[in-house]
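Predicting holo structure, calcium ion bound.
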Amino acid sequence: MRRLFLAALLALAALGMTILARTARQVSFACDRQTCWAVEPPADGVDAPFTAGAIDLTGDGVPETILREGETLRVLQGDVEIWRSDPAWRVVDAALGDPNDDGRYEILAALWKPDDAGVLTSHPFIIGHRGGAVKVIWGGSAVTYGIHETALADVDGDGVEELLVLESARPGDGLDAAQRTLSVWDWHGWGFNLRWRSEAGRYRNLGLAEGDIIVVTVEK
Ligand SMILES: [Ca+2]
Ligand SMILES: [Ca+2]
Ligand SMILES: [Ca+2]
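Done. Tokens:
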């Protein structure tokens, strides 16, 4: 019995070493209007999931402050909170820019919320300032591949921002999905079209480097 216990302990230790030995490295992608391809990762620039930023949502030339505290998103004018995300949402990431290409700035929020059966589903929402108030101006329906991280950038240099996403590689995988893909999406007028999707990998820390080169960390 004691020997069995020792063997189990050794097996656990070996497993621990295997997990520790998993190495992380950065990979990068550049894109044109059709596709993306791997490039040498630049030395600088990785953003963790969004925590704070500033952008002019109201259009008066003065940026609002956008904070992600825990899984809550807040919009402030000076010290005054003018909007806060629904308590039922779990906002896992956000990006600031013009995701719907209408010349106004908004917040693209990657959030998970319970459906009617109480199951967490992933949605991309666009939050903007319209009619004198901050509100959801576009609420995407539940996506098949859950969204874990997001960014907005003009990766092909045509003057229009693309939506970048780290999403679950498998349908139905939840917030803890390890296998993910990187994808690039185009706004088409009332939603997003998939332009390109990478192979699956243990992707995290989606960010951008100089020249809107996509940078992600991948664990081997
Ligand atoms: Ca403003
Ligand atoms: Ca916009
Ligand atoms: Ca573009």
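The chain has a mean pLDDT of 92.
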